[in-house]
Amino acid sequence: MNILKLKVSANECTWLPADKVEFIDVVDANTVDLRCLGTYDDLAHDEVAITASLKSSEVAEVLAGHIQNQRGSVLDVAAISGVTSIAALVAK
After folding, report:
1. Angstrom distance (rounded) from CA 17 to CA 82
2. What pLDDT, on a 0 to 100 scale, did the predictor assign at position 42?
3. pTM tops 0.70
């Protein structure tokens, strides 16, 4: 299974199974949203906003490649080139 490590801060980290990601939305040049179903609430749509300084398309491409990868590994999202911050997982 592929896992996304979403480190929000020194004290907060979320481990998200890649198969829970339903959509990768490139909002603008600086923001990528990961949208998931059933992470916290089966009736809500959960979301993680990733800030990527003028590299949102490249970050989305790396995320999509990891999600499609069949090897089973962990991707530290904060380590992707261009990622400057990761918001906490929130129900929408």
Report:
1. 22
2. 64
3. yes
